[in-house]
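Researcher: Go.
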Amino acid sequence: MSKLDDLIEDLVTANRILAKQGIVDSFGHVSVRHPDNPKRFLLSRARAPERVEPADIMEFTLEGEAVDARGRKPYLERFIHGAAYEARADVMAVIHNHSPGVIPFGITGRRLKPVMHTCATIGYEVPIWDQRKKFGDTDMLVSNMAMGRDLAKALGKSRTSLMRGHGCVVVGASLRATVFTAVYLELNAKLQMQAEAMGKVKFLSKGEADKVAAATTEVWFNRAWENWCRAADRPYRD
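Model: Structure:
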């Protein structure tokens, strides 16, 4: 198989893993930058992630235009992905989801911060994007590049950003790293809510979060990926 074929298979696997782990349900999506053309990215047609197959994977420009749609309907919010790749050359994969644990932090102003070492890749403090500030009352969807770019601006150099009343966006230097962060963002949200119900929380310090994130390498990502592949009934590839 070619490098592109391998990446498409991994992208299908990422969809299945995120569904199995409860990060996406019938909605949400994951993309990866094209391995041969950094100004393109790969994303499924509009379909529930658990049902995505290799034939569903489409190629897009960074402006969200399908290169060869062949009658396939794309996700409306593909602009989240294109704008993130456009803004950040270091971003190789993007996930948008509505995992339930993150929603309260986007609507209360309570900052989501790492409480556990394996959650440090979420960043020391997760920013919140509120599209109403710039775009007024909307249907809460990121339906054009202007919205996508505003979200990318709020994301800044972070790996994660919440979206008020909507969900979150997660980016990373590899597909496996990004899936890892998305899973542990949801776990951190649940643990933080549990801890805050018990009393004052002692979060990881910025120095601790930075050091743990720096030490979290592909070895960690691959270990988790292999485990999640088995759970999602997908083959594991080194």
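Model: The longest strand covers residues 167-172.
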